[in-house]
Request: fold
Amino acid sequence: MSAHTAQTELKLIGKLILEGELTCETGLHIGAGKGSLEIGGADNPVVKDSHGRPYVPGSTLRGRIRSLLEQATGAAIPSELVYISKRKGQEVRIHQSDRPDDEICLLFGRSPSRMEKVGGGDIEGGVATPARLSVFDAPLVVESITPQMRETLDDELTEVKSENAIDRITSQSNPRTLERVPAGARFKVRMVVDVLCPEDAALPALLAQGLRLLEDDTLGGGGSRGSGRVSFSGLSLKWRGRDYYAAGAPEREVASGADTAGLLAKVQDLGELVAA
Reply:
């Protein structure tokens, strides 16, 4: 656990720039919503950009990493869960506490607004912290969809997976289709961690842990039915101190061409780099 305190002064020390590739080990489905249903298309289309290319929304990737870290660190407990949405049938709960050394809240930010606790009562929002982590939309590497892959796809860039739900009483089938980005497709990933105090040097290791957890879990929909297994590769991490922006000083390379294990090893102790 970090040594953050409520009195820690926040001032930009530098930024850690993480870039690399996310590879689909199985088909990937990140839904576009019911409003995007096309005539003659799949029941559940994937989200696409304005050019019709699938992409991984930064909010989806960020939210999944946060969820996995909350579970792994024991933060997903009723006493520290709050509602960020509470509509009938669509309740959304996340971890938030008012502890100044809560690394989940430091990495992902803490809302200053009043929130309802899942276990009852309110968090008044007395402790607000800016998010250190920014996760950008990950565009498709179009060349990763090879001509050989295109020959088997239902669309130029995606496949349609047919599924069948069976009623347990009547045995009646309920066929459905799921649009997916095919296995082998790659996306360009970019994340930025703002370091606002020396204690923030511990947060990149938490992010690296989240990436490793995601590789053994799933991203997007249909995970329990075979979709959404991903991996990270070619990860580079660069440090850009305040003088990089103010005086044109060079950036420093922390990691290059790493997998998640190599990244975790490189970020275990960034204290000296941050203090330099």
About this structure: The chain is about 20% helix and 30% strand.
